Please model this.
Amino acid sequence: MTTTQLHQAKIDEQPVIWEVPDALWTRLAPLLLIDKPRKKSGRPARDARSIFNGLIWLARTGSQWSQIPAQFGPTTTIHNRFSAWVEHGCLERAWAVLLEEYGEVIGIEWTWQSADGCIVKAPLGKKGPVVRRKRPEAIPLTEANLAQNERS
Model:
């Protein structure tokens, strides 16, 4: 069995995570706080944990933002908080903690890494640059039209 297969066996032993466990959340919660005054009065801010769980759901399913279940909160709230976390560097710090946690539980084999991607043709794509129609030129005036315009 190769080292990659051993590593995969460790991964397969772990439960599938759809929500942040309590122990991990105690480490992540302080990193996701943004210290800025609220612009709007009204409802209190949504719980960060449910929003983070919504982001986990989004990443695991690969769905669109509009498909996030209501149990995680409104999609606009989740997207706005995600954008704020990215802007303030909160997600970068949280990602570092997640990598550290993963490294402790399973171990990260830094000697072998790969990236996966897919390039496909756009379903309604067209070849070449966008062709724009030219505006029709004005119809030249004839002598009869000029005479009629002068009378009016």
User: Anything to note?
Assistant: The mean pLDDT is 79. Helices lie at 3-13, 22-28, 48-61, 75-87, 90-105, 143-151.
